[in-house]
Automatic annotation (TrEMBL):
One of its GO terms (molecular function) is metal ion binding. CDD domains: GRX_PICOT_like. [2Fe-2S] cluster binds at C29. Belongs to the glutaredoxin family. Monothiol subfamily. Keywords: 2Fe-2S, Iron, Iron-sulfur, Metal-binding, Redox-active center. The keyword Transferase does not apply. This is Glutaredoxin. Residues 16-80 form the Glutaredoxin domain.
């Protein structure tokens, strides 16, 4: 399986996927950490993939999305954005609405 096929499979077979530096339990960059905090605060389930484990994955996801930075969040197969976009959407309530619109359960207390 090529790296493009691997990424495509992960994005399409998981409702929410975060390509990040480190893991959800141990983010290894501040931007990845911020997105993890936001997703955890909202209470949405997601799969975190550590791009530091593979240069092929780190480079491949940038090509796949045509987006130069990590982290990258995908919801229902669709690229949403990186840290700044996710933070702005969260602060405006748009991220929570996106999950609701896509039928992904969140912690309503958030």
């Amino acid at each position: 399986m090529s790296i493009e096929q691997f990424i495509d499979n992960e994005v399409k077979s998981n409702d929410v996927v975060l390509f990040m530096k480190g893991t959800p339990q141990f983010p290894q960059c501040g931007f990845s950490g911020q997105v993890v905090q936001i997703l955890d605060h909202i209470g949405v389930g997601y799969k975190g993939l550590n791009v530091l484990e593979s240069a092929e994955l780190r480079d491949g996801i940038k090509v796949y999305s045509n987006w130069p930075t990590i982290p990258q969040l995908y919801v229902k197969g669709e690229f949403v954005g990186g840290c700044d976009i996710i933070r702005e959407m969260f602060q405006a309530g748009e991220l929570q609405q996106l999950f609701a619109d896509k039928g992904i359960p969140v912690d309503v207390a958030a």
